[in-house]
Amino acid sequence: MIRALAALAVLATPAAAQDVIACDWQASAWNLAEPWEDNSRTFSNGAVRIAKLDVGEPAFGGFFVLVLSPPYGELGERQCRVLTFPDTSGFAGIDFDRLEAAYDPSVGLMFTVPVRVFAMTDAVEPVGAMLKFSLNQATGAISPRLELGD
């Protein structure tokens, strides 16, 4: 009983192993999950785009979240960032249909999307988690948090 409670406590706590990286090979156009219209959404009058990326391999971590957003560069391009878990290995799955967004003027845009992760190095099956991240369009700061457990 104590072991079961301890396991539940671990699953309900945040995991710190998610990263925000500059766009690299993961963000290539051929990695946009098909169909594009189901795996990409815009916010803030089109200034922000969130998309699901599927690089295929590794099977335990082939999915990423793409964020195109202000601030804009000198040529008018948006910043391009990728959310990964961990060390650029990606997520085991992303339920993009369930992506939710909200806005808080003191924080910026806030997103929540269910993901699956291999939370331990010896895990055989992925576990459910909620990826939550905020985006400050003025600074470009993206603050991710992963909460293990569905």
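(ticket continues) Second input and output from the same batch:
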Amino acid sequence: MLFDHCAECQLCCRIDEGFPPLEITLNKSEKQNLGRLCITSTCKHLSAQGCTLEDDKPFGCQLYPLSYNPKTQDFFFDAACPLMPVYRQQLHDPNSEASHHLSRMTAVIQQLSQDEPAYLRRNFRVDSDYFDIQPLQPAAAKKRAHT
């Protein structure tokens, strides 16, 4: 499965020496549950099997390797993530893991757009400042983000 690679790679949960810490953007309920989540070297919730938070991980982590620009309603992808080519390819299959991930994230984004639009703006600002994000494309993915 596509995201099985994540537990092995763990690149997104580690900060290389010399890079500034990454403060994960949290929405209101995540702040209540987690307080503050700042990665200085390795995320404190990372184990050898992956994230110990599982289904309770912050939305920004669930969204990764994607990023969402609420102003343009476009999705982006962290170019450093090795899943990018496979993720993009899978979007051509509506039953693929990538398509299901994008659909789930789009549903949450639609709710957050109503409940916490400032959170979405903050999250994209952090992502675009910290990561090398590239447009997700193809056009099918862009269309789906606007529905």
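Agent notes: The chain has a mean pLDDT of 90. The CA atoms of residues 67 and 127 lie 7 Å apart. Closing as not reproducible unless the customer responds.
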